[in-house]
């Protein structure tokens, strides 16, 4: 890893509260200064960024990164068939080695497309933690618990979650946090969810769960418990400022008010919701009601990539066409969903280019046809940019991508290993 302690990013267009041209000084892992008075002598490394846009690193608030190995598996299916017939039978064959290979492939893809932090739930998570530590990015990682209402299974799942806390919480210089991650209200018993809530609160951790993803899930919970999924989770004490609910597609107006009152974050996953034909989440209503709303890619086999630039654009377009109102999801709101709202959800002091924030910074090329002209740089970032326009990425003050070359990872070796791991799976 590059051992630089100070970096001057010279003259980029900066996407902050205002869009302005200035220089950024990074010292250790923080943004020390943003000003026009900085010069080359102020830092050990100087990056000429006059033809770049500097923006905060993107925050992917719901994914399963090792599912990169399942790219292309189970296209054209609804969620439950996709899980039962395509995904779960393959996941039964996962091993430490396979999860490590899939996670490493995801690190390459995320760094090269501008993601500096992600929120994950999956299996063999110590392997994902190892990949994150080596890559240099940030992550909140949870062992994905499913008990299918079985007592013995519940105890084993909680034991695995506790082991992950011990092995990985606050590791990698604080870049890795652990979260408690029961899979969903229709695959986890009430006891498992309640014990998850307690485990999260005892250890001051986030709680990350799939909720209200499909109409089938809502019907099932209503039949079983006589209420909708978020109301049901509220009776279990699972809704708080530390909760990140993935999907929230079929949320009722009453539930939206409840989420706002409880301070819950919703992670919206537009590609996955469209690909699995789950539905359209009421994102415009979430924002209107002050719900902290963020963006995720979900796993690669329901997306089929980890490019947060395309998720941003899809988020905005989907809401505009759904409401037949072009004024919903203003460009700035969509951008905030993919950056500062995600940082807030995960409780990390990043997501904005401001002095004192952690130095998670992405430099995007502007000297490419689809970024010209640059009338409104923020608009180009949300609607025109592609993940492949990311030129440089800094996370925690370290340069992980420089002129599109990874500095911490051997890209070709990782691709080759992932290819053979996918064949085994
Ligand atoms: C318990 S670890 C995570 C578990 O979730 C599966 N999964 C991936 N995407 C989704 C989704 O959109 N809804 C529900 N479950 C999903 C993943 O394959 C793992 O089994
Ligand atoms: Zn998911």
Task: Provide structural commentary.
This protein is an alpha/beta fold and 425 residues long. It folds into two domains: 6-56 and 355-406, Urease, subunit C, domain 1; 58-346, Metal-dependent hydrolases (TIM Barrel). The chain contains 15 helices and 19 strands. The protein has helices at residues 79-91, 96-112, 125-135, 151-168, 190-203, 215-225, 229-235, 253-262, 270-275, 283-288, 308-323, 331-338, 340-346, 377-384, 411-424, and strands at residues 6-10, 13-15, 19-21, 23-27, 30-35, 45-48, 52-56, 58-63, 115-122, 138-145, 176-182, 207-211, 243-247, 265-268, 292-295, 361-365, 390-395, 398-402, 405-406. It is globular. It binds the ligand CSC[C@H]1O[C@@H](n2cnc3c(O)ncnc32)[C@H](O)[C@@H]1O and zinc ion. Zinc ion (ZN) binds at residues 62, 64, 210, 246, 298-299.
Features:
15 helices, 19 strands, Urease, subunit C, domain 1, seven-stranded mixed beta sheet, hydrolase, TIM Barrel, binds zinc ion, Amidohydro-rel, alpha/beta, binds the ligand CSC[C@H]1O[C@@H](n2cnc3c(O)ncnc32)[C@H](O)[C@@H]1O, EC 3.5.4.41, 425 residues, four-stranded mixed beta sheet, 2 domains
């Amino acid at each position: 890893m590059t051992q630089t302690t100070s970096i001057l990013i010279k003259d980029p267009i900066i996407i902050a509260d205002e869009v302005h041209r200035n220089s950024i000084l990074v010292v250790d892992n923080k943004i020390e200064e943003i000003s026009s008075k900085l010069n080359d002598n102020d830092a050990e490394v100087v990056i000429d960024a006059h033809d770049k846009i500097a923006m905060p690193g993107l925050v992917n608030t719901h994914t399963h990164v090792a599912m990169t190995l399942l790219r292309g598996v189970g296209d054209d299916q609804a969620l439950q068939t996709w899980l039962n017939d395509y995904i779960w039978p393959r996941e039964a064959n996962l091993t430490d080695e396979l999860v490590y290979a899939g996670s490493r492939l995801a690190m390459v893809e995320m760094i090269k497309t501008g993601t500096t932090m992600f929120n994950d739930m999956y299996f063999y998570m110590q392997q994902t933690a190892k990949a994150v530590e080596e890559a240099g990015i940030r992550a909140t990682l949870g062992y994905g618990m499913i008990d299918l209402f079985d007592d013995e299974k519940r105890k084993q799942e909680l034991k695995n979650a506790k082991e992950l806390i011990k092995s990985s919480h606050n590791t990698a210089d604080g870049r890795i946090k652990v979260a408690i991650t029961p899979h969903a209200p229709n695959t986890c018993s009430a006891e498992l969810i309640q014990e998850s809530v307690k485990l999260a609160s005892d250890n001051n951790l986030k709680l990350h769960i799939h909720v209200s993803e499909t109409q089938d899930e809502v019907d099932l919970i209503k039949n079983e418990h006589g209420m909708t999924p978020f109301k049901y989770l509220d009776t279990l004490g699972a809704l708080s400022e530390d909760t990140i609910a993935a999907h929230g597609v079929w949320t009722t107006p009453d539930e939206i008010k409840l989420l706002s009152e409880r301070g819950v974050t919703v992670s919206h996953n537009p590609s996955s919701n469209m690909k699995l034909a789950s539905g359209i989440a009421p994102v415009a209503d979430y924002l209107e009601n002050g719900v902290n709303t963020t963006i995720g890619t979900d796993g690669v086999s329901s997306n089929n990539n980890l490019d947060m630039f395309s998720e941003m654009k899809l988020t905005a377009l989907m809401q505009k066409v759904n409401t037949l109102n072009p004024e919903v999801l203003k460009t700035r709101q969509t951008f905030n969903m993919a950056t500062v709202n995600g940082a807030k959800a995960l409780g990390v002091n990043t997501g904005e280019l401001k002095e004192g924030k952690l130095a998670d910074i992405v430099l995007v090329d502007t000297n490419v046809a689809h970024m010209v002209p640059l009338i409104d740089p923020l608009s180009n970032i949300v609607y025109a940019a592609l993940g492949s326009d990311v030129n440089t990425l800094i996370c925690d003050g370290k340069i992980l991508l420089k002129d599109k070359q990874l500095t911490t990872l051997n890209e070709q070796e990782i691709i080759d290993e992932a290819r053979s791991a996918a064949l085994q799976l």
